[in-house]
Specification:
Radius of gyration: 24 Å
Number of domains: 2
Strand content: 15-25%
CATH class of the largest domain: Alpha Beta
Structural class: alpha/beta
Distance between the termini: 44 Å
CATH superfamily of the largest domain: Zn peptidases
Number of strands: 17
Largest sheet: 8 strands, mixed
C-alpha cells in the first residue's frame, strides 16, 4: 500500500536572508507576513506592499482593537492572497503551533501552489521557532489522509514555500522528517479496521522496512508460544484469523552507534473489549487503538531519515481483541514470557497484556532507554483531557526532561507517580499480580505499575499514555482529530533533552 507521505518531501522550501519585495510577492499565489503584536515602523518596512498592508491592518484595528489577523488580496495583477498576522514573541511553543495551524487552515481555503512567508521584527531564536512552527503546520495541512469516497478529494496544490526575513538559514530537515513520521502515524491510525488488519499492517511495515533499509523480524503465534508469551496470546487467541504477532524492526547507523533506544507500541487494530464487550459509545473509534504502534513506527522513520547516531529498535504488538468461544475471560490465569503469572480481571484491559510480553522481549535486547506508546486508559483522559498525554518513568530523574520536552515541543505531557505502594491494589490470591482492578481508581497509574513488572530495572523506561492521540479539531499544528502525538515529542526528548547522551540515576 502506497502511503503518500512523500508529498511532504516534494514541497520545496527555499530560505532567503533578505526581505521580500513587491515583485517577489507578485510571483506567489499567497503571502503570509508575521510581525510582533506591537509592530513598529521598521517592521512594517520589511513587508512587501508595505503601505497597503499597514493601512488596511490599522483600519481594521481601529474597528476591532482585539483583531490580530488581516486577510486581504493585494492590489496587483494576480490578486495575490495575503495574510498579516501579529504574534506574541513570548508565546509558548504550543501557542505558536496552534496559531500556525489556524493560519495554515486559512491559507488552505485558497489552495495556493506557492507561498511567500515573511518574518519581521523578531530576534533570531524566536524567528527560527516561528518559522519551524509555520512550516510544520503548512506541511501538516496539505498531507492527504485516507479517503474511501467515490469522488476522491483534490490533492493540495502546494509545491513551494519561500521564506524571507531570516538572519541566517535554519535546518528544516528535522521539520520534514518529523512531519513525515507524524503523517505516517496519522495515516495508519485513520485507516478503518477492515482495511488495516494485523496481516495488512505487517505487509505495509515489511514494504517500508525494505525501502528504509531496516532489519525486520516477525514473531507469529507459534514463535510467541515458544517464548511462553501467554499474556499476548491470551488476547490474540479469539481472532478468527491467526495473523497476530510482534514486529521487531532495527535501525543501525552506518558507523558504530551510541546507546541503544527501544520504541514499543500497542497495535490493537480493533478492540471490542472482548468478553467484557464495550458499549457502542466506547467501541466506536476503536480502529485507532493501534496508534501507539503507529507512533513508534513514525518515530523510527523520522529518526532514520535524520540518520541519528544511535541504534534504534522498534517493537509493534499487533493483534485484535475479539469476542468468541476462545476469548480469554475474567479470572483466567496466564503466564507472561518473563515468568510472571497474571490473573485477568477485565478483558478490555488488553493493551497492557500485549505490551507486557512485548516489553519483556524488548528488555532482553538491553536498550539504554525504552519508550512505549499506548492508547491505554480512559483514566488518563479523565485526568488530563485530550490536550495532554500522561508520562511515567522508573527514574524520577527523568521527570524534568520529560516535562521540558513536552513544553518545548508543544506536545504537552504531565508526569504521574509510579510508587511501589500502588502495587497493593494489584495483589492477587491466585497469581503474581492482577491485570487491573474493577474499581477504576487511578487505573492509568496501576496500568503503568503493571507494565513496570516487565521492564528490567537497569533500563531507563518511559511509558506514554496517549490521552492526546485524538482531539476534535486537531491539536497544536496538526489539523486532524487524529494527532500522531508522540513523534514530535520524542524527537525533542532525544535531540534536545539528550536522553541517550546523559547518564541518568
Amino acid at each position: 500500500m502506497d502511503i503518500p507521505y512523500s508529498h511532504i518531501e516534494n514541497i520545496k522550501l527555499n530560505q532567503h536572508t533578505k526581505d521580500a519585495l513587491a515583485k517577489q510577492a507578485d510571483s506567489h499565489q499567497a503571502i503570509l507576513c508575521i510581525v510582533p503584536d506591537t509592530p513598529r515602523k521598521t517592521h512594517w518596512e520589511q513587508l512587501p506592499y508595505t503601505a497597503e498592508l499597514k493601512s488596511r491592518y490599522q483600519r481594521q484595528h481601529r474597528r476591532d482593537r482585539h483583531a490580530t489577523r488581516l486577510v486581504t488580496d493585494l492590489p496587483n495583477k494576480t490578486g495575490t492572497h495575503a495574510i498579516l498576522q501579529t504574534l506574541d514573541p513570548q508565546a509558548s511553543a504550543f501557542e505558536q503551533l496552534s496559531s500556525a495551524r489556524k493560519l495554515a487552515a486559512e491559507l488552505r481555503k485558497h489552495d495556493p501552489a506557492s507561498i511567500l512567508l515573511q518574518m519581521a521584527g523578531f530576534e533570531h531564536t524566536t524567528s527560527s521557532r516561528l518559522v519551524e512552527a509555520l512550516i510544520a503546520a503548512l506541511l501538516a495541512a496539505v498531507c492527504p489522509m485516507p479517503s474511501y469516497k467515490s469522488e476522491p478529494d483534490k490533492p493540495a496544490a502546494l509545491k513551494r514555500i519561500d521564506i524571507y526575513g531570516l538572519a541566517q538559514q535554519i535546518d528544516l530537515s528535522r521539520v520534514q522528517a518529523e512531519l513525515t513520521g507524524n503523517h505516517l502515524a496519522r495515516w495508519l491510525s485513520a485507516m478503518p479496521a477492515n482495511e488495516l488488519t494485523p496481516a495488512v499492517y505487517r505487509e505495509i511495515v515489511t514494504e517500508l522496512a525494505g525501502k528504509e533499509g531496516w532489519q525486520m523480524k516477525f514473531l507469529d503465534s507459534k514463535a510467541l508460544a515458544r517464548q511462553q508469551a501467554g499474556a499476548f496470546l491470551a488476547v490474540a487467541q479469539a481472532s478468527p484469523v491467526d495473523d497476530a504477532g510482534i514486529i521487531h524492526l532495527s535501525y543501525r547507523p552506518g558507523a558504530r552507534g551510541g546507546k541503544k533506544l527501544a520504541l514499543v507500541g500497542k497495535g490493537i487494530c480493533f478492540d471490542t473489549g472482548g468478553v467484557n464487550v464495550k458499549p457502542a459509545r466506547y467501541m466506536n473509534g476503536m480502529h485507532e487503538d493501534m496508534q501507539g504502534s503507529a507512533v513508534a513506527l513514525g518515530t523510527l522513520l523520522a529518526l532514520s531519515r535524520l540518520q541519528v547516531d544511535h541504534p534504534v529498535d522498534c517493537w509493534m504488538a499487533l493483534a485484535q481483541n475479539h469476542i468468541g468461544s476462545r476469548a480469554y475471560k475474567p479470572n483466567d490465569v496466564v503466564t507472561a514470557s518473563n515468568g510472571t503469572t497474571i490473573e485477568i480481571r477485565h478483558t478490555d484491559a488488553e493493551g497492557r497484556m500485549v505490551l507486557a510480553d512485548t516489553l519483556a522481549l524488548a528488555s532482553k535486547e538491553k536498550p539504554y532507554v525504552m519508550i512505549d506508546y499506548a492508547t491505554l486508559t480512559g483514566a488518563c483522559i479523565y485526568s488530563l483531557s485530550s490536550r495532554y498525554s500522561g508520562v511515567f518513568s522508573n527514574r524520577d530523574s527523568l521527570h524534568g526532561p520529560l516535562t521540558t520536552a513536552g513544553r518545548d515541543s508543544g506536545e504537552r505531557v504531565w508526569p504521574f507517580p509510579l510508587d511501589k505502594d500502588f502495587d497493593e491494589a494489584l495483589k492477587s490470591e491466585l497469581a503474581d499480580t492482577l491485570q487491573c482492578t474493577l474499581e477504576g481508581e487511578a487505573d492509568h497509574i496501576l496500568a503503568a505499575r503493571f507494565l513496570n513488572r516487565f521492564v528490567d530495572e537497569d533500563i531507563h523506561w518511559v511509558h506514554i499514555d496517549l490521552a492526546a492521540s485524538n482531539h476534535k479539531g486537531g491539536l497544536g499544528h496538526i489539523p486532524t482529530d487524529t494527532t500522531g502525538f508522540g513523534v514530535r515529542y520524542t524527537l525533542n526528548l532525544l535531540l534536545q533533552q539528550a536522553l541517550l547522551e546523559t547518564e541518568w540515576n
